[in-house]
């Protein structure tokens, strides 16, 4: 079994994450974290796995939806404090596609459709603007929370 690319370095944690933007009408599919925050379906990339492969696997595990992967929309360097310790991620954000009118089902996490224009609670915060854009040009963001 492949291990997640997730390591502890001194007092800090580091991981590589991949997620996808799945739109349906004016909504985007989001996952609800244990603290109530929303993010995009996805998760840690595993050793030997590409970020595209991770998006497909994570979508299926979390939502029960089989997706196809489109353009790489963003790379986000995400630095924040988690459980009182520094945490750093590199996040690959892709556009993903599924059949029309997909309904999330037997996933591992809570998922819901969130109105794109009303979206303001996604983490990291750069995702809130990214889901509203129509571009397929790759963008680079740095999110550094104190």
Automatic annotation (TrEMBL):
Cofactor(s) the protein requires to work: Mg(2+)
The keyword Hydrolase is assigned to this record: yes
Family matches, as InterPro entries: Nudix_hydrolase, NUDIX_hydrolase-like_dom_sf, NUDIX_hydrolase_CS, NUDIX_hydrolase_dom
GO MF annotation list: hydrolase activity
UniProt keyword Hydrolase present: yes
SUPFAM superfamilies cross-referenced by the UniProt entry: Nudix (SSF55811)
PROSITE patterns: NUDIX, NUDIX_BOX
Domain Nudix hydrolase, chain residue ranges per copy: 12-146
Keywords carried by this UniProt record: Hydrolase
Similarity comment text for this entry: Belongs to the Nudix hydrolase family.
Protein name stated in the entry: Nudix hydrolase domain-containing protein
